[in-house]
Specification:
The chain contains three helices and four strands. It is an alpha+beta fold. A four-stranded mixed β-sheet has the order 1-2-4-3, with helices on one face. Helix 1 packs parallel to helix 2.
């Protein structure tokens, strides 16, 4: 069931992402003994990079990233309490997504715009 929720949320996120969003977002969250950094790219390529102490949350974020076509990296800088590490990661994800989804009025991509020309 958790995977289904992550997939549905990821698809909704993908559909709601404006073409003119900031695209990138990152946040570092301290939570008691834990310090976690999360970075996202809403550029259309699903990738999950990270490891959380709870396999269910690890799988949730992998499913979310894949279905949202988002790159999500979670780096646990330190932390011994699995609850604090996981909570910091989830809060970091929310803050990162908030930053990445901000509409900037312009498309932030060079796809199809960079060309290589060889002179004769």
């Amino acid at each position: 069931m958790t995977e289904d929720v992550a997939i549905a949320l990821g698809r909704a996120l993908l559909e709601a992402t404006p073409a003119t969003c900031a695209r990138y977002g990152a946040a570092t969250v301290p939570m008691d003994d834990a310090l976690v950094t999360v970075a996202v790219d809403l550029g259309g390529r699903g990738y999950w990079g990270g490891a959380l102490p709870d396999g269910a949350f690890d799988h949730l974020l992998r499913s979310l990233a894949t279905s949202a076509a988002a790159t999500v990296h979670v780096v646990v800088v330190r932390g011994t309490d699995p609850h604090h590490v996981t909570e910091a990661a989830m809060k970091g994800l929310g803050l990162s997504l908030r930053a990445a989804l901000q509409d900037h009025g312009a498309v932030f991509s060079t796809k199809g715009a960079v060309r290589w020309e060889v002179g004769a």
